[in-house]
Specification:
Spore Coat Polysaccharide Biosynthesis Protein SpsA, Chain A, 2-C-methyl-D-erythritol 4-phosphate cytidylyltransferase, globular, alpha/beta, two-stranded antiparallel sheet, nucleotidyltransferase, four-stranded mixed sheet, 21% strand
Length: 211
């Protein structure tokens, strides 16, 4: 079951604060030394976010830009906000992943600085099967990874990738970049939840309380 809430998932309360604020706070951690924080939201959510920032006295410097009709278009809009920057490493992250360990963020940034492109990923815990017209077949889970975010890239590499036309096969930023550059995998974390269902929110609360 998906989240049957009266507001977008990123604005749902998580221990009294919006999910998105928890996420923003992770990347604002001083040890990461992130130079710019850009939030990409639908234009009709700007007022809600501004109200939440006021309610929770948010002092984290960040820029909010309007997204597009797809993830690809939204990332492109976020990149446009960085036009004044000539170089660097940019991280693309899901706003509904509020528990990403700082070690995962830092390691992914570092790997992208060294190799050009790096993403966080974890090994599947369960057996995995592929589908065919005749039924299904076993896959070797040792050769598979579950992709998370952050996904980090050398800035100009990501710019070049997003100058190409959008394709249906673009499910994340790595799929946009991979024809131009190899993708380095960094060990993710099973606590790096993407909050999609009510159960995810309950688990996120439990994990935060356990810290």
């Amino acid at each position: 079951m998906r989240m049957g809430a009266d507001r977008p998932k990123q604005f749902l309360p998580l221990l009294g604060e919006p999910v998105l604020l928890h996420t923003l706070r992770r990347f604002a951690e001083p040890t990461l030394q992130v130079a710019r924080l850009v939030l990409v939201l639908p234009a009709d959510q700007f007022a809600t976010w501004q109200q939440l920032c006021a309610e929770h006295s948010v002092q984290i410097p960040h820029t909010v830009v309007a997204g597009g009709a797809s993830r690809w278009a939204s990332v492109r809009q976020g990149l446009a906000e960085l036009k004044a920057h000539a170089e660097g490493v940019v991280a693309v992250h899901d706003g509904v992943r509020p528990l990403t360990p700082l070690t995962v963020i830092n390691n992914t940034y570092t790997a992208a600085a060294e190799h050009g492109a790096a993403i966080a990923a974890v090994a599947p815990k369960d057996s995995v099967r592929g589908l065919s017209k005749d039924g299904s077949y076993a896959l070797d889970r040792a050769r598979l990874r579950l992709v998370q975010t952050p996904q980090c890239f050398e800035l100009n590499l990501l710019r070049r990738a997003y100058q190409l036309p959008e394709l249906p096969t673009f499910t994340d930023d790595a799929s946009v970049v991979e024809d131009l550059h190899p993708i380095r995998l960094v060990e993710g974390d099973y606590r790096n939840l993407k909050i999609t269902t009510p159960e995810d929110l309950l688990l996120a609360e439990a994990l935060l309380q356990a810290r």
